[in-house]
Amino acid sequence: MNDYNDIIQEYEQLAAKADRAFREMQRQYGKCVKCHEQCSDCCNAVFGLFLVESLYLSRHFNALDEESRRIILARADQADRDLLEMQKRLEQLGDDPQKLSEAIGRERVRCPLLSEEHKCSLYPYRPVTCRVYGIPTVINGKIHACWKAGFEKGKAYPAFDLDGIYKELYRLSKKILERAGQTDLDRASLLVSVSKSIKTPPDNLTSTG
Questions:
Q1: Backbone angles phi and psi of 93, in degrees to 5
Q2: Distance between CA atoms of 182 and 189, rounded to whole angstroms?
Q3: What are the distances in angstroms from CA 103 to CA 72, 87, 96, 112, 202?
Q4: pLDDT tens digits, one per residue of 20-31
Q5: Model-wide pTM > 0.85
Q6: Strands, sheet with 137-139, edge to edge from the N-terminal-most edge strand
């Protein structure tokens, strides 16, 4: 069985880089960064995980106690139902990438890791996207920021390069597939939901299908 520990260590370095960027933005622009404990707006956004993130999350989820896993899996079932309903709505919009992207941005699906106390059940192991949600980021060449943040339009701020991070996550995901003996390396670009990540045993995430 592959352990992928060296690849996981590279991933953790990316996560640490994101944490440093967030702290630096807080230091420089503390009044603009509105994130605080139990602020869970980002926990209702729709996004997917690269394979390396999915595997990392799955491992730490399986380290939780049985009762915690049971509760989270029940929320994952609800998240899957919500994602299915969202997919039905999106199908009515046709194939326009811009419309689909804007529509997904408006969708609200509760992350199964969000507890009733509005805290992340796997906070130390949360994906990179979650770590930088409250600061300006570059996605698809455009700058984005949480709608709650206090960053002013038209004013220049440092922005975290999520595009660059995504390229690294793709690279690491591809390395995992190669080590697992997979031939369909295009799977490295496919994104996995949080619910599927925690429902799927780690070894199965790297298998075909």
A1: -90, -5
A2: 14
A3: 27, 11, 11, 21, 31
A4: 999 999 999 999
A5: yes
A6: 142-144, 137-139, 160-161
CA 202 from chain centre, in angstroms, equals 17
Nearest to 128 by CA among 45, 198, 53, 76: 53
The token duo for 175 is: 């390395």
Distances (CA, A) of 171 to 41, 177, 188: 29, 10, 8
Q: Residue by residue, what is the 3-state secondary structure of 181-204?
A: CCCCHHHHHCCECHHHHHHCCHHH
Q: Are 142 and 132 in contact (CB under 8 A)?
A: no
Q: Are 110 and 75 in contact (CB under 8 A)?
A: yes
Confidence of residue 141 (pLDDT cuts 50, 70, 90): very high
**Pairwise CA distance, residues 195 & 73, whole Å:** 8
* CA pair distance 55, 137, nearest whole angstrom: 24
Q: Tell which residue, 89, 60, 88, 86, has the closest CA to residue 72.
A: 60
End-to-end Cα spacing for the chain: 18
Structure tokens at 26: 């807080």
Query: What are 143-197's pLDDT values in tens digits?
Result: 988 889 999 988 999 999 999 999 999 999 999 999 999 999 999 999 999 999 9
